[in-house]
Amino acid sequence: MTQSSSSKPTVEHPDGPAPSELQITDLTVGDGAEAVPGATVEVHYVGVEFDSGDEFDSSWNRGESIEFPLRGLIQGWQDGIPGMKVGGRRQLTIPPHLAYGQAGGGHRLSGKTLIFIIDLLAVR
User: Fold this and answer.
1) How many CB atoms lie within 10 A of CB 1?
2) What digits encode the pLDDT tens for the residues 51-95?
3) For residue 14, is it within any domain?
């Protein structure tokens, strides 16, 4: 599956049970600067719930990318973005313990396995 990183990606609904560990799939390999742990990254992303396929967040819908330090994000992003290069598009499937914790944790996404497709636009 190849998708242009200049348009909002669509997330294919997966078959089978949710994974218990982080799954990293490069959809497009970038050729720019490489993200390292603790870097500040600029990304476009879309997030969906694994079980329902419902979209819960998307920078594309807001019409602008977002920039933030990796260390302030959920563990699945901290573990899943390093090694990615600018210009790349990566899919992360993140189990609850690397996202918002187990069910009942107080966040609306607690207990859910999440799928993100992330376009890396810049590393600082």
Assistant:
1) 10
2) 999 999 999 999 999 999 999 899 999 999 999 999 999 999 999
3) no
